[in-house]
C-alpha cells in the first residue's frame, strides 16, 4: 500500500497557507530529505516559481526542504528518485494536462508504489483518486485523459460543500453534481470537507481532522463517515 | 447573424420550470410550428423522456409544440430541417459528448446558420459560446472536444455567482476560476446571472432581464455591463 496524505484544502479560513497541516507535514515527511513540489495547478494563474516559493516557506516552518519539479532538467528521473512529493492545489485540468505532457503521471505512480510519500491538497488530492472527474474546477484546458493516480480505489471531491438551505441560487448543489457523476460512473466518491484529510499507509485509509466526510455510492443514499474511520473497504 | 435566446437558468427561485421565460418563448418561437428539444444534459440524471415531458409541458403553457430529438430515427436530418431548437440544462460534459457522438454539433451549427431559432438554458446556453470551458459542471464523461457552437464570439458562464464576502469556504470563487481560464485562453467571458439572457438577432447581441452581467477580458479588470446593452463588439 502507498503512503499518502490527501487534504481537502491547503488553507483554512483565517489561517496561513498549510498552517493547520504543519504538525502533520513534520511527521509525514520526517524521513524525507527533500520534498519535490508540483506547482502545475497554478491557482489563480500564479507562476511556478512564485507557487514553489510559497510552498517552500510553509515547508520550512515544518523544518523540511522543498524544491519545484520545474527546476529539474529531467523531471521524470527526479520523480522516480524522489522519496517525498507534494502536489499543490489550483486547476485540476491544468495539473493533469501538464502531468501528461511531461509524462509524469506514470512516473508518479511508480514512485509512489516504490514507497515515496505523496501529499496533495485540493487538486493534488483530487488526482490521487481513480479519475479527476469529481473535481470542482473549470475545464480551462483539454487534458489527454481524465485518468489519474489511483492511490485510493475511489474518487475524491475536495472542498466538499453541504447544500445551503438558505440559498436561492439554482445552480446544481455539490450533491446533485455527484449524483450526475453516478448516473454514468460506478466508483464511490468521498466528499472531503475543508479541514479533513485521508491518511493512507499500511493497508489502511483513514479519515483525519475534526469533521465527518460524506460518502456517495451509486444507487445508494449518501451517508456520513465519522473522523478516524477506516475507509479501506471503500471501492 | 443567428437567432438565439440564451438564458443563464431555466428556473428562478420559487418559480416553475421556464416560468419567467414564458413570455419570451411565445415571441421567440412565434413562427415555429414544432420546437425540437435536446435533453442530453440530463440534470440530476433524469431520463430523456421525463426531461422532454417537463419541457413540453412548459412550452404548452406558451402555446408551442415541442418534441425530443431522441424520438427521431434520423437525428441529424431532424436538426437540419428544424426551424426551432431548445437545449435544456444539466451536465455540459454529457451534453457535449452526446452531441458529438450523434454527430449533431455541426448539424446544429448549419441549422442555426440557416435561420433556425436556437434557445438554450444553462448548459444549453454554455454551448452557444466558442467552447464549453467556462462551464461550472463536473467532468462526469470525457468529450471528444471542448469546442461548441460559437453562436456568439465569446464564452458564457451561466449561473454566474458573485463572491460571498461572508463565506469561510476556501474553494475558488467563480471570478478566480475565470481568471484561471484567462491564464491560458484569450476569448472574453460573460458571467450571466440567473434571470438574465442574451438575445441574438439582426447583427445584435443584447443583454436582457433585470440584472447586469459581468464581463471578463484577458489581462483586464472585470466590469459590469448594464441590461439592454449591446454586446456585438465583445470578441
Automatic annotation (TrEMBL), chains A, B:
UniProt keyword annotations, A-Z: Hydrolase, Protease, Serine protease
Keyword field contains Oxidoreductase: no
Keyword Cytoplasm tagged: no
GO biological process: proteolysis
Xref: SUPFAM superfamilies: Class I glutamine amidotransferase-like
Single GO MF annotation: serine-type peptidase activity
Highest taxon listed in the record's lineage: Bacteria
InterPro entries given in the database record: Class_I_gatase-like, Peptidase_S51
Coiled coil: none
Assigned protein family: Belongs to the peptidase S51 family.
Protein name (record): Dipeptidase E
Organism: Salegentibacter holothuriorum
Amino acid at each position: 500500500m502507498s503512503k499518502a496524505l490527501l487534504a481537502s484544502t491547503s488553507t483554512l479560513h483565517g489561517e496561513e497557507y498549510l498552517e493547520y497541516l504543519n504538525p502533520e507535514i513534520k511527521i509525514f515527511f520526517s524521513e524525507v530529505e527533500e520534498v519535490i513540489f508540483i506547482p502545475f495547478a497554478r491557482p489563480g494563474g500564479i507562476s511556478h516559481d512564485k507557487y514553489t516559493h510559497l510552498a517552500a516557506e510553509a515547508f520550512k516552518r515544518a523544518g523540511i526542504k522543498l524544491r519545484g519539479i520545474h527546476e529539474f532538467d529531467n523531471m521524470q528521473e527526479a520523480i522516480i528518485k524522489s522519496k517525498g512529493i507534494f502536489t499543490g492545489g489550483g486547476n485540476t485540468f491544468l495539473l493533469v494536462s501538464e502531468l501528461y505532457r511531461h509524462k509524469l503521471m506514470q512516473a508518479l505512480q511508480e514512485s509512489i508504489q516504490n514507497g515515496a510519500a505523496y501529499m496533495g491538497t485540493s487538486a493534488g488530492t483530487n488526482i490521487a483518486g481513480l479519475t479527476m472527474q469529481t473535481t470542482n474546477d473549470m475545464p480551462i484546458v483539454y487534458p489527454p485523459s481524465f485518468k489519474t493516480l489511483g492511490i485510493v480505489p475511489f474518487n475524491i471531491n475536495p472542498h466538499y460543500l453541504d447544500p445551503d438551505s438558505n440559498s436561492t441560487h439554482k445552480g446544481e448543489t455539490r450533491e446533485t453534481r455527484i449524483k450526475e457523476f453516478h448516473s454514468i460512473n460506478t466508483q464511490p466518491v468521498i466528499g472531503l470537507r475543508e479541514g479533513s484529510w485521508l491518511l493512507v499507509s499500511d493497508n489502511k485509509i483513514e479519515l483525519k481532522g475534526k469533521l465527518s466526510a460524506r460518502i456517495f455510492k451509486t444507487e445508494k443514499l449518501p451517508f456520513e463517515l465519522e473522523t478516524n474511520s477506516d475507509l479501506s473497504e471503500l471501492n
